Amino acid sequence: MSSIADQTIAALRSGHDALAAFVGKLGPDDLTRPSGASDWQVSQVLSHLGSGAEINLAALRAAQAGDPPPGGDFNPSVWARWDAMPPAEHASGFLEANERLVEAYEALDASARADLRIDLGFLPEPVDVATAARMRLSEFALHRWDVEVGFDPAATVADDAVPLLLDQVGAMLAWTGRPDVLAGRHALLAVRLHDPDRTYGLQLGDRVELTDAPERPDGELTAPAEAWLRLTVGRLGPQYTPEDVRVTGPVSLDDLRGVFPGF
C-alpha cells in the first residue's frame, strides 16, 4: 500500500507532466495573458512556481546532506533572479526547475520517504517528506489552476491532488480567513463536499476554523471538494464557480468569498 509521501510525489509528477505539456504549447502572447492569480500574468505564475521549486530543492538537498537550509539572502536572491527574467525564460526555467525537484523527490527511497526530515526554514521544526511534498503540491496544484484558468474558465484543480490537500485546509484557515468582514456576525455552517465526500463544520466568528460536522448548523455549504479548496484561497470568483455550489443560512457565498480573500 502506497504511503501519503508516495501518493503526493506521484501527484507532483502527474501535475508537472500535465502542466509542462500545456506550457509547451503556449506562444509569447499566451505567456502575458492574465492568470487566475490576482495581478499576475501567466508567466509570473510560472516564475513563482519555478523559484519555489528551486528553493524547495535546496531545502531537500540540505536535509539529505545533514546541513541547515540555505539562509540569509538565498530566497530573496532566487526571487530577484526569477523576477528579472523575461516571460519566455519564466516558462523554460519553470520546466527545468520543477522537473529537477520532482526527480529529486522520486529518487528518495522508502527509508528516506519515511524518516528524512526537511527544514523548510519557516516552520518551528523540520517536517517529514509527506508534509513537505504536500505543501509543495498545494502551491503547485493551485497555481497550475491559475495558469490553466487563464485559457479555460471551467478549469478545475487536478483530481489526484484534491484528496491529498483537503486535510491541510483546517490548518490554513487561521491565517487565510478574515472573519472581520462579517462585522461581528457568527455562524456555524455544515460543509458537505463531494468528489471526494467530506463533511465538516465551518465556524465563523471571532476566528475561522473547521470543526466536526455540527448536528444543528445555522446553514450549509455544498460544493465539489476542489471548489471548496479554491474558495479557501480566494479562487472561487463568480466566473469560476460550478453550478452545484450552494450556500444556505445567515451568510452568503459572497460573504464567504470575503472571508477568504486569497493571497
UniProtKB/TrEMBL annotation:
InterPro entries reported for this sequence: DinB/YfiT-like, Maleyloyr_isom, MDMPI_metal-binding
Domain Mycothiol-dependent maleylpyruvate isomerase metal-binding per the UniProt entry, residue ranges: 12-148
Organism of derivation: Micromonospora costi
Protein name per the record: Maleylpyruvate isomerase family mycothiol-dependent enzyme
Gene3D superfamilies recorded: dinb family like domain (1.20.120.450)
Keyword Cell inner membrane: no
Keywords on record: Isomerase, Pyruvate
Pfam family, one: MDMPI_N
One MF term in the entry's GO annotations: metal ion binding
Organism classification: Bacteria, Bacillati, Actinomycetota, Actinomycetes, Micromonosporales
